[in-house]
């Protein structure tokens, strides 16, 4: 499927094969077929992918080959066969993804993940800061729940939806942060984890909540040291020095302008109420 999309203002042409994770998910980002796109990602299904002969800069799987104007990344299976290979220009304007379905347990999932990973790298270069979090919309603002995988960020977002009126899920896994007019905005994309739940919308960021599993539902303000530690753990970290400059500038704004809390959360409505009370200084009990 070769179509053009406008995702958070990024005009991109995608040519992919499986729609298991994208059908009913990506259509709202479609743009005019005559649109001139700045980026393209093409996926090719191969019966065999030849192993590159060039020397790699990494000694562990996956392997990386650096060229003057592009980079090659490939992964081997246990028998030493290439199961997937990505070639992209240094600016990510053009990306080619090759996968061998016969060597993969779930080719559709691998394709979706590789499309998402590539798009997030493009978003980083377009001034966005991808963060691992579930983002909800409430009172025309975005609230992020961030935590390691399987900790409960999606569950906590669903608890908010079931506890308060007017709550909607914006993106369940990788919302995009962008500084616009001295304000952090939260954008969505069709790459939102295995649940593929997202909306083609954006909103100003109200607060970030870092979740830890607990029994007390104690919400606390984080120290700067702990804020940085948690933010660095959950953002997409760039591999170029110049990109780090823009990332650090956004982190500085987040720390100075956005309320960031931590909760020792149970997975019930009391946890949502405790966070709500802290953010909005309203006691709903």
Tell the overall outline. globular
* Residue fraction in strands: 25-35%
Q: Report the order of strands and helices.
A: EEEEEEEHEEEHEEEEEHHEH
CA-atom Rg in angstroms: 20 Å
Q: What is the level 1 CATH name of the largest domain?
A: Alpha Beta
The name CATH uses for the topology of the largest domain is: Phosphoenolpyruvate Carboxykinase, domain 3
CATH architecture of the largest domain, by name, is Alpha-Beta Complex
Q: State the distance separating the first and last CA atoms.
A: 51 Å
Poorly predicted regions? none
Q: Describe the sheet with the most strands.
A: 9 strands, mixed
- As for the number of domains, it is 2
Strand count: 16
**How many helices in DSSP terms?**
5
The residue fraction in helices comes out at 10-25%
Mean pLDDT: 94
Q: What structural class should be given to the helix and strand makeup? A: alpha+beta
Task: Produce a short descriptive summary.
The chain is an alpha+beta fold and 285 residues long.
Give a topology summary.
Layout: E1 2-7, E2 10-15, E3 39-45, E4 63-66, E5 70-76, E6 82-89, E7 94-99, H1 107-125, E8 129-130, E9 134-138, E10 141-146, H2 153-163, E11 168-171, E12 176-180, E13 183-187, E14 202-213, E15 218-221, H3 224-234, H4 241-257, E16 260-265, H5 269-280
Parallel strand pairs: 2-3, 3-7, 10-14, 14-16
Antiparallel strand pairs: 1-2, 4-5, 5-6, 6-7, 8-12, 9-10, 9-11, 12-13, 13-14, 15-16
């Amino acid at each position: 499927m070769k179509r053009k999309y406008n995702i958070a203002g990024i005009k991109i042409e995608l040519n992919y094969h499986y729609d298991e994770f994208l059908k009913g998910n990506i259509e709202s980002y479609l743009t005019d077929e005559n649109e001139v796109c700045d980026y393209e990602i093409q996926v090719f299904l191969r019966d065999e992918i030849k192993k590159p002969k060039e020397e790699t800069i990494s000694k562990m799987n996956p392997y990386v080959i650096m060229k003057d104007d592009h980079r090659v990344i490939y992964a081997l299976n246990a028998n030493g066969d290439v199961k997937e290979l990505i070639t992209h220009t240094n600016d990510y304007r053009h990306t080619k993804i090759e996968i061998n379905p016969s060597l993969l347990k779930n080719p559709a999932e691998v394709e979706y993940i590789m499309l998402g990973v590539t798009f997030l790298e493009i978003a980083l270069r377009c001034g966005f800061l991808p963060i691992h979090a579930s983002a909800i919309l409430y009172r025309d603002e975005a609230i992020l729940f961030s935590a390691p995988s399987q900790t409960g960020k999606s569950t906590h977002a669903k608890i908010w939806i079931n506890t308060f009126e007017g709550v909607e899920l914006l993106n369940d896994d990788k919302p995009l942060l962008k500084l616009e007019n001295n304000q952090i905005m939260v954008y969505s994309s069709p790459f939102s984890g295995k649940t593929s739940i997202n909306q083609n919308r954006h909103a100003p960021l109200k607060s970030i909540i870092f979740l830890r599993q607990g029994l007390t539902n104690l919400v606390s303000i984080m120290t700067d040291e702990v804020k940085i530690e948690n933010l660095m753990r959950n953002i997409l970290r760039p591999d170029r020095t110049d990109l780090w400059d823009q990332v650090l500038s956004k982190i500085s704004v987040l720390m100075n302008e956005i309320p960031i809390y931590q909760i020792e959360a149970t997975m019930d409505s009391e946890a949502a109420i405790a966070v709500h009370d802290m953010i909005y200084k309203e006691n709903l009990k």
